[in-house]
Amino acid sequence: MRPTSPRPHPPLWSISPLDQVESAFLSLAAEGRPLTVPVALSADSDTVSPLCVTRVRARMVHPSCTEQARAGVWNEILRRRALLGEPWGTVAVGLTLPALRRTLSRLPRLAEVEACELEQEVLAAVTAELALLTTDEPQAGLRLVRAGDRAAHRLLYAAQRTRRIEAVALDENAVPRPCPPAAWRRRSPCSCGPSGPGSSPRGRLNSSRRPGWSAR
pLDDT 10s digit of each residue in the chain, 216 long? Predict the structure, then answer.
């Protein structure tokens, strides 16, 4: 039996940072002891029931979810993050992933910017903005998504500006094509004037002789 080589692992730079956060978020809702958040069962009901974080996110992105219900969920997430720390920070970032993916899908793709680099920049901005939020922020989710969108635009704009600067530098430093040497110009029929019997010194001498005159 031939030995099988182990399957190579993908390089670290090929792993999507958003996928890593998504995996960590989904693991919080795994069977056994899923992480739950108390939310209202409907917009016109005061009954609160605990739901796992994945179901909470699915409810929040649904069009039927009201702004008041979203604000209530965010206030509870931010309150628990302030009191307990992790994994509620991961939950807060995980709730923004659907909106962040839609935002990134509308941006242009540049060869100078790797997708992983762009996602990492977005997540860093979202995490920094999350640290500034208070528990009573009415637009917490929108602020986090806008912070990630601004970071993505800054990175892409910097890449485009660098591309324009490099293109201008190449045009200014272009070396002009050297002129051909004199010997080559004499041999070239296109650079010595019109061709014909009068184009060479011998031809011009013969053409200047009168009819009937012959050299001795």
Answer: 444 444 444 444 467 899 999 999 999 988 678 898 887 755 555 657 788 999 999 988 888 888 888 888 999 999 999 999 999 999 999 999 999 999 988 887 777 668 888 888 899 999 999 999 998 888 999 999 999 999 999 888 887 777 766 555 455 555 555 555 555 555 555 544 455 545 555 554 454 455 554 444
Residue 156 CB partners (closer than 8 Å, separation 6+): 107, 108, 110, 113, 118
d(CA 144, CA 21): 15
What's the pTM value of the predicted model, to 2 decimals? Answer: 0.66
Contacts of 180 (CB under 8 A, 6+ apart): 188, 191
Report which residue type is found at 90.
T
